[in-house]
Amino acid sequence: MEPRFEDVAALDVDPASARIYAEGWQSWSVTGALPLAETPYRVTLPNSLVIDCHYGSAPDEGVFRGEGLLAVDPGDGGSVHVFGAASAETAASRVPVIEARPYGGRVVIASDAPVEHTEHQGGLEAALAHWGTGFAEQAGVRLRPSPTVWCSWYQYFSQVTQEDVAENLTAMDELALPVDVVQIDDGYQAAPGDWLTSSGRFDDLPGLIRRIREHGRRAGIWIAPMIVACKSTLFAAHPEWLVTDPAGGDPVFAGDVLGDSCVALDLTHPGAAEYLADVLRTMRGWGVDYFKIDFVYAGALEGRRHEDVTGVAAYRHGLRLIREAIGPEAYLLGCGAPILPSVGMVDAMRVGPDIAAYWQNPSAHPSEPSQANATRNTVARAWQHGRFWINDPDCLMLRPEVERREDWARTVERYGGLRASSDRLRGLDEWGLETTRRLLTPAEPTPLV
């Protein structure tokens, strides 16, 4: 599906000083303010088009594209022009795609749906913060502090075992680390979709969760509730639960992720909805009260569903289903999640690509894991913290082999909201251990900007 645009405004600016802020579609999508004279990155990789781009489409070369929000800062002290979704209510069913096309000393703004054009004094960050405050009020955002977390992912990845988690649980006690939540990440399940079937590396997941709680800590779990691996039992057993292509009837491709080819789950289908709700209620019954939901952009992919709704409306329906299943007291962290449609629906949100042990990704792809990519988005979206949710810059990785670990620690200290560690705790050196201990503090919903 390609957006159809109509011109909204034409602004006269100095190309040497003007900047464009373009909000990305989801957590990992490129977000930031670039000089008008600079050529913005254009997604071309097929997998990235599916994962990072609304409607699976990219703008023309040299065109800036914002998903529901785009701002033009003239850079001369004049008013910042903000073009945003007309309201939180309209963004709950459709997020406007907004483009800025430079023509010498003029930039033309176009959108595929109604947007509101406002002007603000005080600079770009102040303008974004002002707009965000109004959007959050419309969305009925309720903020609460975030816990401190230990996460298994960045040390063990999908090969994590029950013993790995247990070892770090003991280390937290021995090292007196202020960890509130022990979060088991990807690797416990047989495949995305088969969440209650063990990978074989967790003999007794409910027992491990009980042990975490007996240590006086809360239990957290990672789940990608809106994708289904093509190799999963769920995929074979319930093709009627999948979002399909209206033209050919095939399941809608949701990307090659986590080593699997995945498709989108249709949570407007009563059977799929009850299945997922039962999974989440079961986990809640084990004692899990912190849920990280990942790759949820898949819930907003366009296609044929049981109910005739837009992808964004289906995504919001899925978030409501998840919240109802886990209950109002459980903490909900979004990741790989569409930004504007998630406002008011999650407690915390990953605001950038995954962190990594290296500064720059070898592929130089701007939404792939790297410290550089995570830092770019974390700084650009700082204004969302304390307005939309608690920002999650991603985990601390402070073991000795991590490149430029001091830089990442400073970024988390300055811009971090949710604080999480993802090292083997006994592998930390003195600096890494002390810095982890110092930075593991609960995040208050106080705006950074």
TrEMBL record:
Keywords: Glycosidase, Hydrolase
Keyword Hydrolase: yes
Tagged with keyword Acetylation: no
Annotated InterPro entries: Aldolase_TIM (IPR013785), Alpha-glycosidase_related (IPR050985), GH (IPR017853), Glyco_hydro_31_TIM (IPR000322), Glyco_hydro_36 (IPR002252)
Occurrences of domain Glycoside hydrolase family 31 TIM barrel (ranges): 151-295
UniProt similarity note: Belongs to the glycosyl hydrolase 31 family.
PANTHER family xrefs: ALPHA-GALACTOSIDASE C-RELATED (PTHR43053:SF3), GLYCOSIDASE FAMILY 31 (PTHR43053)
The protein's name in its UniProt record: Alpha-galactosidase
Organism: Microbispora hainanensis
Species classification: Bacteria, Bacillati, Actinomycetota, Actinomycetes, Streptosporangiales
